[in-house]
Specification:
The chain has 330 residues and is α+β, with helices and mostly antiparallel strands. The chain has nine helices and twelve strands. The protein has a six-stranded antiparallel β-sheet with strand order 1-2-3-6-7-5, with helices on one face. The chain has a six-stranded mixed β-sheet with strand order 4-8-9-10-11-12, sandwiched between helices. Helix 1 packs across helix 6, helix 3 crosses helix 4 and helix 3 packs across helix 6. The relative contact order is 0.11.
Length: 330
């Protein structure tokens, strides 16, 4: 017997024919379609319930910033001959930060969806992603991500389950969405990972984000993230693609004008093999990280800064008792 059902709730329309479900959503909370196999049915929802509180904590930490240290950074830049044009100190929409963090943490699973979405950012429109060969956990993550994007008005979508497992996505162009998915999500993810590690170590820090300056040589430039931690500084540049015209200038300017050593000049590439990273390090004299290597690399740097801070706090050893009186005695 063939079952046919049609349900309409506001702008949510669900149609069932045989073992197939088609869902059209124009607003409200989206739902994933489920066929006989139910691929992508439960994992996404459970993941959000279990990890939501931890993610909210990371996001809240990601916008924390020391006003006093920020002012120290600004004064330090001015002393080095920089003219400050604009900057952010981390005030961001929490839901947007969640999107950025999720994309970074689940990038390998979300990669097919992200690359297709990025390819249509300029003109808007739609794309289709066939997920028949994807494992169920990947389908679940992609559908859950779609739900988050739709709640912010970035996309709407439909999904047909078995046998086609086809996702159809409609991108709604807006400045926030275009800016986020063209590459700024990586900068936000990097900031959250850095702050997460700094909080774990209990270190004092402040940072400037999207820093626009006039350099001492009167050329304009922009730096993604500039951190000060326990009196030590490092800079991070983030690129999802097309880094070739930026990497040399970044390293040279961070060295010449900021006085930062190579391991404090961090260039984060979304996708880079270990071999490629080694080659870039040798060519441009800076620290190059990929999405996968960045957490380990930043942890190592922060541990180094923490140890240096402890050395500063440790008082010099007292002279041996009677040491001075022995000088010059033969």
């Amino acid at each position: 017997m063939e079952l046919k059902i049609s349900i309409t709730i506001e702008k949510l329309e669900v149609k069932v024919e045989g073992s197939q479900i088609s869902i059209s959503i124009g607003g409200g909370n989206p739902m994933e379609g489920k066929g006989e196999e139910g691929r992508g049915e439960k994992e996404g929802g459970r993941d959000e319930v279990e990890k939501g509180e931890g993610l909210q904590q990371k996001v809240r930490e990601g916008v924390s910033n020391s006003t006093e240290i920020v002012q120290q950074l600004l004064e330090w830049l001015k002393e080095r001959g920089f003219q400050i044009k604009n900057y952010s100190t981390g005030e961001e929409v929490e839901q947007v930060l969640k999107i950025a963090y999720k994309l970074g943490e689940k990038y390998q699973l979300l990669r097919p969806f992200y690359l297709r979405l990025k390819s249509i950012l300029g003109q808007g429109g739609e794309f289709t992603l066939k997920m028949k060969e994807f494992p169920s956990v990947q389908i679940s993550e992609i559908l859950n991500f779609c739900r988050q994007l739709q709640e912010l008005g970035f996309i709407s979508y439909t999904y047909k389950n078995s046998p086609s497992f086809t996702l159809r996505v409609f991108f709604h162009p807006n400045p926030t969405g275009i800016n986020l998915f063209s590459g700024h999500w990586l900068e936000k993810w990097a900031k959250l990972k850095i702050v997460e590690e700094l909080k774990r170590k209990g270190l004092n820090f402040g940072y400037l984000q999207e820093l626009q300056v006039e350099l001492p040589d009167q050329k304009d430039d922009e730096f993604d993230l500039l951190f000060e931690v326990e009196g030590e500084r490092f800079i991070v540049e983030c690129k999802t693609a097309n880094f070739e015209d930026k990497i040399q200038k970044f390293s040279e300017r961070a060295g010449k004008f900021l006085g930062l050593p190579p391991n404090r000049r961090i260039f984060l590439l979304l996708e880079a093999s270990e071999e490629q990273r080694r080659g870039l390090v040798q060519l441009y004299n800076l620290q190059v990280e990929s999405l996968e290597s960045f957490p380990t690399g930043i942890k190592k740097l922060i541990e180094e800064i923490g140890e240096k801070g402890k050395e500063k706090e440790t008082p010099p050893p007292l002279p041996l008792e009677g040491g001075d009186s022995q000088k010059g005695v033969s």
